[in-house]
Amino acid sequence: MSDLIDELDARILELIQEDASLSVADLAERVGLSPSPCWRRIKRLEDLGVIRKRVTVLDSEKLGLGFEVYISVKLALPSRANLEAFEARLENWPEVVSCQTVTGHEDYMLRVMTRDMHAYDDFLRDKLLASDLVSGVESRIIMRSVRQTTAVPISLVVDMTKTEAPKTAAGK
Question: Which residue segments constitute the domains of the chain, with CATH numbers given?
Fold first, then answer.
């Protein structure tokens, strides 16, 4: 994929990860393009699936959802049918903001957000542990978030330290 993305694409991706509300005109100006070519690049990145969607990041604390927990989940029997059934149940649990299948003793790692410890206990008892699919959980309560980003490290895909001098009529 990195051969499909050049430095201009990478700069556009960095900028829209930082602020998805930037207009095409603002993006174009910041990367040194006119709006039409900038828009075409964005459209191409969307068509490639590099840009999946644009979202607004909310402050969960200010919304009263400051209690965050990472939960390791072990299924009773990790068969294909049980994995699919568990994943389907997650769709109805708004507290689960992220779910990954993982290697090791556990089958899943969940990131859960609730109002407080009591709301988390309700989620744990009434939803997660009430599921006949789950044989065990281990919770890790987040005390303080040190670093959190939704940004993908574009600089690891494209070497943005290379700067190619613009070609002039004399330098061709």
Answer: 7-56 (1.10.10.10), 60-141 (3.30.70.920)
